[in-house]
């Protein structure tokens, strides 16, 4: 029996503003369902010995839970202005504070990198203009696996060329993207790539659902910071609250090559918290 397929909405008709009509419970349900599906898919790939593939063919494989498009739509609604706004607000606040501080001595953050505009690579961009309020000093390149707008480059971050991006970026945003990657080794690769792509003294903005670091068997707030340090990324800002949904960090790429401690301990999973109610979020190097 042939199944009725849901009619796809053309990209031009997708919501690009943040007004939300769907109920928070229904947006959360789609997002949760999508993550469960990605996880099952990754487990299946590992069992079959085929770890690659979550890039290009993602769209067709997740069709049964509404597809990447619907997931993205729900994510945009979930961060609507009427629900507190997007994560970029946190990054903008931190950058403005740092910019003002740098102004006291020189002419703001841009002088630290000797540039007219700070170059920001926004990985996992659902809207093309998240940083419009900073257009006079930040030049944004928004990318996503599935572009919802002509101004968002359709690009898998994991496939970006290392050589041409080496120490190219002043800011990199990885907001709710690392948890989207269903494989622990790929998460490690993603973070290693971030460290490579940043200039010395440049910033990595990271957002994760709080349970990834507060209720995981394998990752804690402390070990995440240690892991980042092993990549040469030093914690400069952190924000989360008990009972909250998200955690935000700002890391700065350290100057000296020599100070990285051994990242050996992040090669295998170590149980930090046990118990049935824990999740399995992990990052492996
Ligand atoms: C939950 S949304 C994040 C939205 C937004 N950044 C935020 O903070 O709300 C996750 C997005 O990351 C994108 N994504 C996941 N892995 C990616 C990769 N390897 N390269 C580019 N985009 C990726 C997905 O396509 C999805 O649109």
UniProtKB/TrEMBL annotation:
It is an enzyme of class 2 (transferase). Its EC number is 2.1.1.-. GO terms for molecular function: rRNA (adenine) methyltransferase activity. Gene3D superfamilies: Vaccinia Virus protein VP39. It is found in: Nucleus, Nucleolus. Residues 1-28 are annotated as: Disordered. S-adenosyl-L-methionine binds at residues 124, 144. GO terms for cellular component: nucleolus. InterPro entries: Bmt2/SAMTOR (IPR021867), SAM-dependent_MTases_sf (IPR029063). Residues 12-28 have a biased composition (Polar residues). The keyword Transcription does not apply. Residues 1-10 have a biased composition (Basic residues). Keywords: Methyltransferase, Nucleus, S-adenosyl-L-methionine, Transferase. S-adenosyl-L-methionine-dependent methyltransferase that specifically methylates the N(1) position of an adenine present in helix 65 in 25S rRNA. Belongs to the BMT2 family. This is 25S rRNA adenine-N(1) methyltransferase.
């Amino acid at each position: 029996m042939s199944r009725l397929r849901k009619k796809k909405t053309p990209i031009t008709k997708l919501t690009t503003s943040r007004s939300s009509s769907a109920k928070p419970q229904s947006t959360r349900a789609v997002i949760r369902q999508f993550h469960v599906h990605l996880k099952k898919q990754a487990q299946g790939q590992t069992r079959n010995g085929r770890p690659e593939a979550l890039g290009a063919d993602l769209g067709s494989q997740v069709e049964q839970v509404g597809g990447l498009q619907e997931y993205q739509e729900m994510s945009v609604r979930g961060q609507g202005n009427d629900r507190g706004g997007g994560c970029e607000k946190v990054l903008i606040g931190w950058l403005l504070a740092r910019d003002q501080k740098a102004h006291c001595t020189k002419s703001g953050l841009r002088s630290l990198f000797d540039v007219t505009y700070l170059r920001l690579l926004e990985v996992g961009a659902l809207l093309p203009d998240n940083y419009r309020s900073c257009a006079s000093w930040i030049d944004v390149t928004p990318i996503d696996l599935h572009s919802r707008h002509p101004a968002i480059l359709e690009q898998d971050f994991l496939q970006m060329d290392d050589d041409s991006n080496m120490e190219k970026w002043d800011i990199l945003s990885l907001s709710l993207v690392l948890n989207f990657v269903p494989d622990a080794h790929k998460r490690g690769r993603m973070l290693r790539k971030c460290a490579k792509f940043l200039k010395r003294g440049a910033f990595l903005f990271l957002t994760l659902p709080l349970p990834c670091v507060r209720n995981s068997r394998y990752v804690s707030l402390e070990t995440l910071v240690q892991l980042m340090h092993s990549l040469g990324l030093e914690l400069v800002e952190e924000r989360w609250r008990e009972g909250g949904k998200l955690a935000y960090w700002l890391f700065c790429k350290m100057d000296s090559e020599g100070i990285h401690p051994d990242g050996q301990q992040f090669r295998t999973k170590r149980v930090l918290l046990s118990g049935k109610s824990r999740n399995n979020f992990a990052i492996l190097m």
